[in-house]
Amino acid sequence: MRAGIESIDGVRVHRYPVDARDRRAFTRVNSALLRIGPGNLKRGVSPLEPDDEATFFREGIRSRALSIAIADRAADYDAVVLLPYLYGPIVEGVARAGRRALLQPCLHDESYAYLDEVAKAHYSARRLLFNSTGEAELARRLYGPGIAPKSRILGLGIDSPVTVPQENVGGFVPQRERYVLYAGRQDATKNLNLAVGAFDAYRRRYRSSELKLVLVGDRSASFARHDGIVDLGYVSEDAKWTLLAHARALVQPSLNESYSRVMFESWLVGRPVVAHGACLATALAVREANGGWTASLATDWEAAFARIDGDDRDLDAFGERGRAYAQKYAAWDGVLERFAEIVREIGEPPIPVQRKLRTTYGVAARSTRDFADALDVHLERAGIAIGADGAPELVHVETDDDVRAAAPNAALIVHGEVSATALLREAPIFAPLRAQCERLRKAGIDAHFLPFPFDERRWERLPDRELSANLQDGNTNLVFSGPFRSLEPLDSLLEAFLDYVRLDGAVRLCLIATGDIDEDVYGRVRDLIYQLNLVENVVLLHEPSDAERLAIFRNATLFWSMGDTDRLGVELRTAMLFDAPVIAYDEPIARELIGPAGIVFTSRDELVRIAALAKVVADDPALRRTIVTAQQNVAATYDDDAALARLRQWLDGA
User: Fold this and answer.
1) Residue 204 neighbours by CB under 8 Å, 6+ apart
2) Apex 241 CA angle, 240 and 244, nearest 5
3) What are phi and psi of 532, to 5 degrees?
């Protein structure tokens, strides 16, 4: 097609010229990417060296004219939608479009998705539009939880027939047959061998079964091995809908999908689906919809065929639940409504400064200072100017003396064990822990819960490359991050970890010293690591960079605290954000955060048992999922915006 402007069905289409490129250089690096198997890909580690990655984008498809046009005209549009993720104009266009950029990546778990420039595009986009929950979860795993606040599930519109065509397909009469359907490209890359092999095994085991496997779609060679497998090849759109409507179920064995259109088509006609359990996009959709089953091993697929060959009512129930799910995410009205809402979101102007506030603290602990700094950032984003003279005052207090030093009309955030009598005042009282609020309320103080303002966007960045690679060597990664102010809990942690190593040597402990750090304690911990001969199994970091912390938390198998964690639970909440199951010694912040979700133990005396407990959690995927789900539910109760509503009310009247 030539560059230029034309109208297609009333839509103005502007095509831009493609730049000349070095095809040989591109082919060299692209071939290297294609040769990388899934087992050799590591999150946060580009599969190409920086020079080769630059070659990939420079010598791939590129249009300087298009990039310039986006930069020059982005502000003229409500939104600039860019898709799919893996091409140079898309990656460059995200940066050029700035606040108007909506990236709809259509992401697959493949080597291209691990490139640094692709990750940066996800971090730079104003919003991320995903076709399915599974695709959004894949993006979260690849690029970290920092993208979650701007991620939206858009869905993908499907044109389904008002009435399903009733027609024969060649000599095959769908209405008269008992069959399960595969619809898609017929080749090994779609993992069709697995489904066909499992069906063969099922038919050999149950020779009286009349169930057939019908295959439709382009192919270079037929997978039909006996009369129980019917290969119809390419079929018309009407024939496809007829086959879907009369199938007992659809099978989708592919391991690498960002969105399976045919699954939603099957659900739209009320038929259940079997998807591969290891494909995030399809497996999560099946589980969310409760519209079928997942299967991973060949024996799982054989069992699925047995179920499909069973009770019609069971299949119909799954199919109807799938239909309801598809009507939500695949109906055009819903997709377009969600898209319009996203465009409205990004069109809203930045929040103007509406209020002013002065925040202060005295000689405060590190945790109090960190809280104050984080709160200031959060308030400024909400349109509250910080530091203005003459403005209402918010004071962080730790002692009765701090309260007495504060102005009578100042609002207080209570960080320490301040007495209730000192807090008898008109201005509002806030506390960063629920336990503190409860204690003060019992004493007659109307205290409001104001948790540590947690900014997920802090993690919208690349992790440390070398550390990320090292942490994905197949070993289990246990993590503790927190203050180094008391030796006893750290000593207990290292002794218990030694017991873990005796159970399983393929493990490391990442110890992050952050916040209040006693350098003498830090030195003694370092010495103890040598004394216990754990140098090869422990990574010890002193106030690491965000890139290093990101590498560690993204690869954490388990967060393990033996006590004396940070008083506000910032590190525990960070572990929860990264879906690391937590086991922790019983102390107030652990009870508040982990008690309803993770595992809290009450004694540090039985280190061998604690080590065994840690190993059970680290090794049991089902238990880990249960804990993580419970932690996600607890984290959802920490709504920073809702907690700040009372503070805003006070400001309005101050």
Assistant:
1) none
2) 85
3) -85, 5
Phi, psi of 490 (to 5 degrees): -70, -40
Query: Nearest 10 degrees: CA dihedral of 594, 598, 601, 602?
Result: 30
Decide: helix, strand or coil at residue 166.
coil
Q: Burial level of 326, CB count in 10 A (0-12/13-18/19+)?
A: buried
Which pLDDT belongs to residue 227? 75
* Cα separation, 25 vs 554, whole angstroms: 33
Question: Which residue stretches of 407-484 are H helix?
Answer: 434-442, 465-470
Tokens of 304: 């699925």
Residue 499 has pLDDT above 80, yes or no: yes
**Does the CA dihedral 69-73-77-78 come out positive or negative?**
positive
- Between CA 406 and CA 397 the distance in angstroms is 9
Sheet holding 101-103, edge to edge: 80-82, 101-103, 127-130, 151-153
Query: What is the distance between the alpha carbons of residues 74 and 77, in angstroms, rounded to a whole number?
Result: 6
**Residue 128 pairs with which residues in a beta bridge?**
103, 151
Which pLDDT does position 654 carry in this prediction?
64
Is the pLDDT reported for residue 351 higher than 80? no
| C-beta separation of 366 from 516 below 8 A | yes
Q: How confident is the model at residue 164 (pLDDT cuts 50, 70, 90)?
A: confident
Are 579 and 498 in contact, with CB atoms under 8 Å apart? no
| pLDDT reported for residue 354 | 67
Rounded CA-CA distance 271/319 in Å is: 4
Mean pLDDT of 441-447: 92
Least confident interval from 192-201, 223-232, 354-363, 458-467: 354-363
Write down the pLDDT at residue 353: 64
DSSP annotation of 18: P
Round the average pLDDT of the chain to a whole number and report it: 92
Of 88, 139, 146, 136, nearest to 114 by C-alpha is 139
The pLDDT score that the predictor gives to residue 104 is 97
DSSP class of residue 459? G
Residues 6+ apart with CB under 8 A from 146: 123, 456, 457, 458, 459, 460, 461
Task: Return the sign of the alpha-carbon dihedral for residues 165, 169, 172, 178.
Answer: negative
Tens digits of residue pLDDT in 239-271: 999 999 999 999 999 998 878 999 999 999 999
CA 59: distance to chain centroid?
A: 31
3 state SS of 232: strand
> Which domains are seen in the chain, by residue range?
4-153 (no CATH), 174-330 (3.40.50.2000), 355-454+643-653 (3.40.50), 459-635 (3.40.50.2000)
**Mean pLDDT for the stretch of residues 283-289:** 94
Comparing CA positions, the residue from 283, 285, 272 lying closest to residue 319 is 272
Give the pLDDT score at 383. Answer: 83
pLDDT class of 52 with cuts at 50, 70, 90: very high
94/449 Cα distance (integer angstroms): 39
Q: Which residues fall within 8 angstroms of residue 405, CB to CB, at 6 or more apart? A: 362
Helix (H/G/I), strand (E/B), else coil: 244: helix
